[in-house]
């Protein structure tokens, strides 16, 4: 149940299986008596130093490992996206600062794109903010709107940064486990509660284009009574397979966006100009052909659905039980049937899936991410038999994964 | 929504004076000598580096390492290791950020706690104050003051100094950090070794972290030397040195910055970084890495951009000083940076009642008048001061001289400009504004 203490926020209209921060670890003080106290970190980052990505990216960095862990596409972005950026690199005026809250041509393109979904005009200057990735939008929204002592509802499993960001704002995360996929009805329940308890909603929709046959993405901000209380976050990285551009955006009513803009002007001030211009141009290309199968918003999910199906089949063939995703580019699988002997793995305090992934990386040269990384301390046990695989990978990577998995299954059966 | 929306950490920092002036400048057809960015291109080798980064390996379109693209952290470690006389480890002593602005934010958030005091030297780059406040800190201001000068002589930024006794009195048991900016924006002062030694000894005595914003480190004139406080004895272990690719390579739109410092401090910035933006864009980092690699090969030679740029910009500075003098203004000769400030006292006494709000500092009203009536934009220096001290600075306005296309006295330049010196880049190059 939701608690109506202070101000509540729900996070993640659609579960995003990407990251989490491990359970708190108290930072040690510097041992030098001379420097000990002053060089201590600010309290806001206490216990937030460890990070699953730093740990697991290192493990998977070995080039002999087939990396299906981090959500990093190894396919090429669409040709026209690369071309736009190349063209822009030659334009001098784009090497200097642009507008802090978003490069004008980009916010205009975003406004034009999203007006189709919101059925109202979106003011490009007041209702859109361009940020350093969707990660930056999450940060700006939480820092701008969430106070010490506020409660924030986080649905488990969750993109791992939600918890540390909420804690850094001095707020208290309240975890609610997910029981089913978000149907329109489920979103309506959330919307009704947000309205009833006068709660804000931060909706992370970075994978909004990646929905598979028979499914539809619903924007909670389009539900009655929700526009005025919702920040909707999107990502260029996930939209155009350019995670390294680190551009994201927040869309919402001006009485909320203005606070994210205040955070922006006191944090990074502006995002990179040439990348924003290239993104604007790429968006215009696809905005003009939204119903065309060539539009990347249509072609990418088609391409990924094939990869998804291939992964599902592969994982089943070795006795892993995958949960077929309706969207996104990750697939989680139950590894318990394999009953792998992990007794010789060090660090027996770690959840099973951490040990399993480390074992699999070392012995099978295949990496994934443990799903308990996306859980709070109390729910880790519920998910410790699940690992997450990323399938936005080129065919040769999936071929290599297939080789490994087939060899593995021959050993077992 | 019936509840108060914004978090309390935004109290007092939501207003941004730039927004108003930028808006004014965009509305009128003005010669914009206000904002601090070049109106000429980055050098050819930097532009080529960016082109290479965006058209080469397509995997550069994806995430790189969170704390910095490896070739960039490697070259920064090597390049600055030599300059700072330190063994700099690319993984432990370097963090790449979204501009120097992002570096400043990360440092304040990682280290400044509720109630901590941060010493800020006035005039200051305006973000230091709101960043301190957003971290719950208490800004403690100490002003640079001009020494009395001979009549008729133009002031130099070097004559603006801190009173050592006054500076010492600002340190308390709650002082967590001191933020230093050299070369200074807006004044253009380059702190001398002796001045830095004073700051250093106080930081050590009171066990304070020194955050040093050195974005203009290459832009020093008249044979002035930039000194990094981190090179002084006892300072590396308590100093965060911040730099900017935007200012270094005249590419402010790339938004790549960095912090160099001891692991004991950087580890906290890394924690903050991984919980705020996590990664910086890859390709701009690749371009900066390649640009530094080029500069490392040319370091100290006449072909180095870090040698050519200050030489060319010094000429721009000198032209601007002449132009301003010719219209009755009294510029303070800057030793470094992109900026100079100019005394408008004569205008203040001749036209004291310019339109504006009742408590609006004179310099802001003057700038608005100047935009409207003279088609020229500058930035009021009271923006760079604490509210209680605005009166000390309300008869100064700041001009940026990293400009070739616009010049004071009205009208934009025509298209043809003299050829730039070799290696400075295509197009106009930084040949500067002429007199009136």
UniProtKB/TrEMBL annotation, chain A:
It comes from the Eukaryota. It catalyses: an S-substituted L-cysteine + H2O = a thiol + pyruvate + NH4(+); L-kynurenine + glyoxylate = kynurenate + glycine + H2O; L-kynurenine + 2-oxoglutarate = kynurenate + L-glutamate + H2O; 3-hydroxy-L-kynurenine + glyoxylate = xanthurenate + glycine + H2O. Residues 64-179, 180-399 form the Aminotransferase class I/classII large domain. Keywords: Aminotransferase, Lyase, Pyridoxal phosphate, Transferase. Its EC number is 2.6.1.63, 2.6.1.7, 4.4.1.13. GO terms for biological process: L-kynurenine catabolic process. Pathway: Amino-acid degradation; L-kynurenine degradation; kynurenate from L-kynurenine: step 1/2. One of its GO terms (molecular function) is kynurenine-oxoglutarate transaminase activity. One of its GO terms (cellular component) is mitochondrion. The keyword Manganese does not apply. Its cofactor is pyridoxal 5'-phosphate. Belongs to the class-I pyridoxal-phosphate-dependent aminotransferase family. Homodimer. This is Kynurenine--oxoglutarate transaminase 3. It comes from Phocoena sinus (Vaquita). The lineage of its organism: Eukaryota, Metazoa, Chordata, Craniata, Vertebrata. The gene is KYAT3.
Automatic annotation (TrEMBL), chain B:
Pathway: Amino-acid degradation; L-kynurenine degradation; kynurenate from L-kynurenine: step 1/2. It comes from the Eukaryota. InterPro entries: Aminotransferase_I/II_large, Kynurenine-oxoglutarate_AT, PyrdxlP-dep_Trfase, PyrdxlP-dep_Trfase_major, PyrdxlP-dep_Trfase_small. The keyword Transferase applies. Residues 29-401 form the Aminotransferase class I/classII large domain. It catalyses: 3-phenylpyruvate + L-glutamine = 2-oxoglutaramate + L-phenylalanine; an S-substituted L-cysteine + H2O = a thiol + pyruvate + NH4(+); L-kynurenine + 2-oxoglutarate = kynurenate + L-glutamate + H2O. The keyword Cytoplasm applies. One of its GO terms (cellular component) is cytosol. It is found in: Cytoplasm, Cytosol. Its main location: cytoplasm. Its EC number is 2.6.1.64, 2.6.1.7, 4.4.1.13. Its cofactor is pyridoxal 5'-phosphate. GO terms for molecular function: cysteine-S-conjugate beta-lyase activity; glutamine-phenylpyruvate transaminase activity; kynurenine-oxoglutarate transaminase activity; pyridoxal phosphate binding. Keywords: Aminotransferase, Cytoplasm, Lyase, Pyridoxal phosphate, Transferase. CDD domains: AAT_like. Belongs to the class-I pyridoxal-phosphate-dependent aminotransferase family. Homodimer. This is Kynurenine--oxoglutarate transaminase 1. It comes from Phocoena sinus.
């Amino acid at each position: 149940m939701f608690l109506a203490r202070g101000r509540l926020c729900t996070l993640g209209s659609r579960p995003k299986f990407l990251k989490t921060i491990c359970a708190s670890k108290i930072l040690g003080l510097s041992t030098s008596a001379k420097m000990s106290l002053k060089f201590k970190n600010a309290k806001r980052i206490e216990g937030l130093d460890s990070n699953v990505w730093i740990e697991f990216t290192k493990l998977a960095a070995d080039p002999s490992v087939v990396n299906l862990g981090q959500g990093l596409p190894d396919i090429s972005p669409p040709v026209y996206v690369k071309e736009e950026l190349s063209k822009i690199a030659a334009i001098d005026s784009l090497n200097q600062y642009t507008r802090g809250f978003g490069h004008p041509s980009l916010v205009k393109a975003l406004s034009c794109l999203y007006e189709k979904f919101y059925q109202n005009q979106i003011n490009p200057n007041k209702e859109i903010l361009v940020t350093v990735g969707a990660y930056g939008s999450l940060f700006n929204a939480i820092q701008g709107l969430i106070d010490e002592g506020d409660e924030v509802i986080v649905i488990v499993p969750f993109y791992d940064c939600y918890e540390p960001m909420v804690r850094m704002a001095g707020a208290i995360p309240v975890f609610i486990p997910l029981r089913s996929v978000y149907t329109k009805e489920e979103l309506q329940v959330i919307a009704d509660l947000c309205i009833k308890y006068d709660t804000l909603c931060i909706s992370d929709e970075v994978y909004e284009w990646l929905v598979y046959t028979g499914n539809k993405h619903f924007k909670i901000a389009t539900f009655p009574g929700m526009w005025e209380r919702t920040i909707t976050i999107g990502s260029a990285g996930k939209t155009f397979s350019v995670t390294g551009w680190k551009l994201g955006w927040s869309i919402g009513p001006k009485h909320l966006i203005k606070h994210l803009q205040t955070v922006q002007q006191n944090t990074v001030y502006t995002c990179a100009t040439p990348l924003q211009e290239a993104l604007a141009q790429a968006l215009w290309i696809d905005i003009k052909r939204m119903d065309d199968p060539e539009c990347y918003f249509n072609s990418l999910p088609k391409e990924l659905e094939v990869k998804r199906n291939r992964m599902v089949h592969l994982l089943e063939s070795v006795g892993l039980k995958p949960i077929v995703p309706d969207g996104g580019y990750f697939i989680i699988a139950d590894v318990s049937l394999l009953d792998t002997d992990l007794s010789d793995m060090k660090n027996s305090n770690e959840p099973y899936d951490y040990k399993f992934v480390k074992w699999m990386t070392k012995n099978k040269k295949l990496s994934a991410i443990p799903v308990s990384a996306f859980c709070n301390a109390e729910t880790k046990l519920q998910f410790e038999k699940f690992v997450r695989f990323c399938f936005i990978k080129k065919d040769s990577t999936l071929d290599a994964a297939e080789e490994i998995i087939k060899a593995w299954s021959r050993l077992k059966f | 929504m019936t509840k108060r929306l914004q978090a309390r950490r935004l109290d007092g920092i939501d207003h941004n004076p730039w927004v108003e002036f930028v808006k004014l400048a965009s509305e009128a057809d003005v010669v914009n000598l206000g904002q601090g960015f070049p109106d000429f291109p980055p050098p050819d080798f930097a532009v080529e580096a960016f082109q290479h980064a965006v058209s080469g390996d397509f995997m550069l379109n994806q995430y790189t390492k969170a704390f910095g693209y490896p070739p960039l952290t490697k070259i920064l470690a090597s390049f600055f290791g030599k300059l700072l006389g330190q063994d700099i480890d690319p993984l432990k002593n370097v963090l790449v950020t979204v501009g120097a602005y992002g570096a400043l934010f990360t440092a304040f958030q990682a280290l400044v706690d509720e109630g901590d005091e941060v010493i800020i030297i006035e005039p200051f780059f305006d973000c230091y104050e709101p960043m301190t406040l957003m971290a719950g800190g208490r800004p403690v201001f100490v002003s640079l003051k001009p020494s009395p000068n001979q009549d008729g002589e133009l002031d130099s930024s070097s004559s603006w100094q801190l009173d050592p006794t006054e500076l010492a009195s600002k340190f308390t048991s709650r002082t967590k950090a001191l933020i230093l900016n050299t070369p200074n924006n807006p004044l253009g002062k380059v702190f001398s070794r002796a001045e830095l030694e004073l700051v250093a000894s106080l930081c050590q005595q009171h066990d304070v972290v020194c955050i040093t914003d050195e974005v203009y480190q290459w832009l020093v004139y008249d044979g002035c030397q930039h000194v990094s406080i981190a090179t002084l004895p006892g300072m590396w272990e308590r100093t965060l040195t911040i730099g900017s690719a935007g200012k270094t390579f005249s590419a402010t739109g790339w938004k790549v910055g960095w912090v160099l410092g001891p692991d004991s401090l950087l580890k906290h910035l890394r924690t903050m970084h991984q919980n705020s933006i996590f990664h910086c864009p890859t390709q701009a980092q690749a371009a900066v890495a390649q640009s530094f690699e080029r500069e490392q090969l040319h370091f100290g030679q006449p072909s180095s951009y870090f040698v050519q740029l200050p030489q060319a910009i010094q000429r721009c500075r000198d032209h601007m000083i002449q132009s301003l003098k010719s219209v009755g203004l009294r510029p303070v000769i800057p030793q470094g940076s992109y900026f100079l400030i100019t005394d408008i006292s004569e205008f203040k006494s001749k036209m004291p009642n310019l339109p504006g709000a009742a408590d609006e500092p004179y310099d802001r009203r003057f700038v608005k008048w100047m935009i409207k009536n003279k088609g020229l934009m500058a930035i009021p220096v009271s923006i760079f001061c604490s509210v209680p001290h605005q009166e000390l600075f309300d008869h100064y306005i700041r001009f940026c001289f990293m400009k070739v296309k616009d010049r004071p006295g009205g009208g934009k330049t025509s298209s043809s400009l003299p050829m730039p010196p070799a290696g400075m880049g295509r197009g106009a190059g930084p040949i500067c504004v002429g007199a009136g």
